[in-house]
Structure formats: structure tokens, C-alpha cells
Amino acid sequence: MKVAFVEIAGFRGAREKIRLDFAPGFVVLTGRNGVGKSTIFDAIDFALTGGINKYAVTSAKGGGLEEHTWWVGEPKANAHYVSIGFVNERGASFSITRTRERGPEEDLREVMARLCRPGWMGRASIKTLIQTTLIRDELIASLSLDLPEQARFAAVRAAIGAIAGPDYSARTDAVLKAAVVLKDAQSVQVDQAQAELGWTLTALTEARSAAEHSGDVSEALRITASVLGSEAIGPAERAKALRELVANKKVALRELEEARLRTEPLVIDLAAATSIEAMSQMAAAKKAQEMAACEKEIADQRLELALRLDAAERESDTQATHIAALLQHGSALGLQNGRCPLCNASRTTREYDSAIHSAKERLKGRGERLASAAAEVERARAAVAAASKALESAATQIAALEGLRASVEKQLGTVAETYARLKFNASANDPARAQQLIFKEQEQLTTLERALFILESSAAADRVTSLEARVITMRQQIDQLTRKLADSESVVESARKIDASAKTVANEILTEQFDTVMPLLQELYRRLRPHPEWSEIASDFGGRVRGSLNFVVGDGRNPQFLFSSGQRRAAGLAFLLAVHLSRPWCAWESLLLDDPVQHIDDYRAINLTEVLTAVRRTGEQVIVAVEDPALADLMCRRLRSVGDQIGRRFDLRTSNTGGVILGEVQDIYPMPRNVLSIARAL
Predict the structure, then answer these.
(1) Does domain 2-145+588-681 have CATH number 1.10.1060.10?
(2) Nearest to 666 by CA among 26, 89, 42, 36
(3) Which of 71, 244, 295, 526 is the S-S candidate for 77 at Cβ 3.0 to 4.6 Å?
């Protein structure tokens, strides 16, 4: 099964519809950074898994992966979908399509069944399939050498562990969890029984102590009759009624004491609010309020009179105002060519200035009267403001004094309501008397508690006998529960051993199986030559239950912390290619590489090309994206085979709207066979 085509629209960096028909031999995608090479691989990943596996973070400020999966630029895309086609060696084909609105249109289980070999369905997940088929530039190191040792072991087990036969570790783990749950339940029952036994022993000790200190029952009965009445009721009912009475009295006394404590500062505040000094302050404030009201009335009348005088002066002086305006403009303009600017009469400068001065002298008296009227208005307004402020201050002082007294009286009224509700015969204004009455109530409560103790101790002997029998029964139950708990612990230990054995056997089988993959990894490592000094790599398996896989070079050194980033990527490529080529369960014969030569020098890029040439000879479809056109040319020359499967090169470009479009498409035909024989025949 190989990839036949990729068709996308409105997805990632593609706005317009674009379709790439892949050749069965190999496909080389080239173009500068940002043209959309990775968008093609993202489309294959998204069509199968519904996500894009190169992002470790899927949500962030400004929008996450879901908000940026489809085209977000301008202008808007006309359609949003991804369609991937597959074809097998017999020519049978199928496709899977995902849209932004509906998701996948095909059954993913059926798709997975077609991409797995017969009989292997269900032994690998679609996530493992895409992770071992698509090798991305961003994930080469993180999915190989940079993986934790246990996660690396799990990745190898997911990729090639399916041929080890049925894995019973999941079933044994479920049995172990069930056994642990049963043991925990038995342990909880034992703890609850022991806690109940402890409470019963405590009650037995109290009952024995009460039986040893039995008091005068007749006195207790007299006290009980005095508060409960002389009705003929049984001892149990009498004790219960007395117990409820004692509890109610305790609550009432607590509430009464809290209310009494609140009255102490309130009484002081009330005395201060009703004192002669407070009365004097109130009288002074009211007198000040009356005076301020009178002063404000006088000020309002004065302001009204001043406003009328000012209006009269302004009304009678309208002509003077116009003349003043003419004088102002005439002074500013002066003579115009020896003539008056108003009447155009011929005048000398001296005559003109003398006329202006005479007019101003005539208007001077009227201006002084206007200014005097305006000043009187301002003084009247100031007097009104001062009177209003004094009136407001007096009102505020009166409100504060009255509010203080009303607040104190209200709080004392609340305390009086509490006293009345609890039938407490005391005044809220007399906390000392209330305290004396509370002391009497407390003495009565003490008497009632003593009577209750005597009544309860009279039945203490019967209670001791009942509790002793209950203790014996509970100890027998605890012994039975303890034996069941021991059996459960034995079952858990056996299940744990079985689970450990199952995981150990599965890990040992996988270790032996990886030994058959190791020569391929070592060969790929030697061809890629990540490090000039350490040309060999070995594996180191550890852990019996939780397996781990490490790689070592030289004298047991760890390349994860020894190699540079480029060297780790080259070694990681060898590991990922070995895992990809060691999947017996996978029917998808395509190797996808998304820009695998980043941070790798030209020498190792050529080595990678030779490795891909060897992979291509196995019949695998190689789909690779590179940025360098020269490297793309080299790959097209080296990946061509002598079979009948052609290759294809796509040069991707960016449209005017910023989306990916197809540039040049070039078919790479296989090398002809028997070239020399044909030449000799000619």
C-alpha cells in the first residue's frame, strides 16, 4: 500500500485547491522555506489521526492548533478539506477525506485494517503507524536519542513488538489491580471494625466508671420532678428529657451571655448620648441650624436685590455699552488717511484723540456703577454659600447625634428581643443585673447535670454487661476479617509475581527480537556516520518489569549526552529508519521524511541519500522534502531504479495570496535495462 495522491484546500498553508499525484517509486518535494512542504505531510498526518503530531503544545494565547489547522489568511478559502489516496500493488485504491465541518468521511477502523497486514489488525495503533512512517525534522532527536530510556523501549515495543505473540501483561495487570482493590476493601473493613471496637471499649470504660460512682438517685429524681413535672414516665424517658433540657439550657446560656456582653458598651454609649453634655450639644446644634437658616434667608434676599440692581444697570447702559465698543474699536483703528473711520469726517490726530478722551470720560462714571453692581452680586453669592455651608454643617452634627442614639437604642432593642425570646427576666439597660441572673441559671444547670449523671449511672451496670458482650462479638468479627485480609494480601502478592513474570517474559522476547533488528540499525549507523570517531553503536537493555533501552558507543558511553545536536539527529535517523523497516505488521510501504537534513552537513546529507537509495531498492515508496534544489537533483538521480516505477519531483511555490501552489512537476523515469546490449545491436 502506497500513497497515490494528496489533495488539500483551505488547509494550513494552502488556500487554493492543490492536488499532488504521487509516483509509486519516489517523490521529492522541494522549495524554499515557508512554501508549504510540511503542509503536505501535515495533511497526511491530519487525514489519518485528526491531529498534527509535531506540536507538543496544542493550546496557547492567541489560538492553539485547532484555530490554526485550517487556512487563516486573507482572502478566505472557498473550501476546507484534506483527501489522501492509497493504492496497492494490484491497483486497488481507496481514499480518506476529512473536512472542517464533518471530520473523517471513512471508517478509521477500516482504513487501519487496510494499512495493516492480514491478521495483524488491532496490534498497533494509528498513532504508532504515523509515528513510524512519518519522520519529521522537529521530532528526529526527540523520538530517538533524546527519549527517556523507558519511553524508547516502549516505542520499539509498539513498532516491532507485535510479532512477539499475545501480550498477557495487560490481563495480568488487570488481575493485579482487581486483587489490590479487593485487598484495599478488606483493609478498610478491618480498620472500620477496629475503630468501632475502640469506640466500644471507650464506652465500656465510661460505663464502668459511672457504675462505680453512683450517687443519690432519690435526690436526682426530686430535682428531675421539679423541672419536668411529676408525670409517671420511665427512667429512660426521664433521662432523655433531662438530657435535652440540659442541652437547651447550655445553648440558651451561651446566647444570653453573648447578648449581655454586647450591652456593656451599648449602655455606656447610651449614657453618653443622653447626658447633659450631649443634650447641650444637640441644643447648640439646633440653635446653630436656626441661625444659619436665618442668615441664609437674609443672604438669599440680598442676592436677589443685587441681581435686580445689576440687571437694571445693564439694561439702562446698553447704549453706553455700544458706545464703549465703538470707542474701543476707534482707538484700535485710529485715523484712516486723515479721516474718522466712523463718519469719514476730516480730522487731525489731536482732534480725534481729544474726542475719544472726552467720550471715555463721559462713560467712566457708568462703568464704575456697573462694576459696583457686579461686585455686590459676587459678595451676595459668597454670603449665600457661607450660609448654606453653615446650615449643612449644623444639620450634619444634628444627624450624627441623633443617629448615634438611634443606633444604640436599636441594638439594645435587639438584645431585649433576645431576652424576651429566651424568657430571661432582665433589662437590656442593666447588664449587672443580667449577669447575676445568668449566674443563677448556671448554678441550676450544674444541678441538672449532676442529676442527669446520677440517673445515667443508675443504669450503668446493665450497660456494662451489654457492652462487654458486644466487645466479644466484635473481636471475633475482627479475627475473621483479619484472616480474609491475609488471604487477600497473599492473592495480591501472587498476582504481582504473575504480572512481573508476564512483563519480564514479554520484555525478554522483545530483547531477543531486537537483536535481529540491531544489525540493520548498526548498518544504517555506519552508512550515516554520525561521528567520525565512534563508527559503531550497540544497544543496552535494562529492567525486568519496566524495560529500558539505551544506546552506547565506544567504551560504554551514552551518545545522548556525548553527541552534538547534528550528530544526535544523524544517529536518530538511523534508529527511526531501522524501526520503520522492522514493522512486520504494516502494509503501508511508504517512507515519509519531512526535511530530514536540517542541521546536518552536506557529507551526511549525501550519506542519507545513499541510505534512501538502498531503502528504495526494497520496493518502499520514498517521499522526502528538501529545501536545497541541488540536493533535490541528487536525490532524483540516486533514487531512480531499474524497475517500472517512476519517480516525481514537485517544485512548490507561493501564490500572490501567500498559499502554496504547484510550480514545476517533473517525472523521473527508471534507468533502462541492458543499455549496452541494445547499443551493440544497433
Answers:
(1) no
(2) 26
(3) 71
Residue 18: its H or E element = strand 18-21
Rg (CA), the chain: 51
Contacts 24+ apart (CB under 8 A), 154-159: 154/547, 155/131, 155/579, 156/510, 156/514, 156/549, 156/579, 157/506, 157/510, 157/547, 158/124, 158/125, 158/128, 159/124, 159/128, 159/132, 159/579, 159/580, 159/582, 159/583
The answer to whether the CB of 671 falls within 8 A of the CB of 636 is no
- Please name which of 228, 244, 223, 254 lies closest in space to residue 424, comparing C-alpha atoms: 254
* pLDDT tens column, 658-677: 889 999 999 998 877 665 56
With beta carbons less than 8 A apart as the criterion, state whether 141 and 598 touch.
Answer: no
192 vs 213: CA distance, rounded Å: 32
Are 157 and 512 contacting, i.e. CB atoms less than 8 angstroms apart?
no
362 contacts 368 by C-beta, under 8 angstroms: no
The answer to whether the beta carbons of residues 641 and 50 sit under 8 Å apart is no
The Cα 621–Cα 419 span in angstroms is: 95
Domains of the chain, residue spans: 2-145+588-681
CA 581 from chain centre, in angstroms, equals: 41
Q: CB-based burial of residue 11 (10 Å sphere; 0-12 exposed, 13-18 middle, 19+ buried)?
A: buried
Q: What pLDDT, in 10s, does the model give residues 527-561?
A: 777 777 887 887 666 555 455 666 778 787 878 78
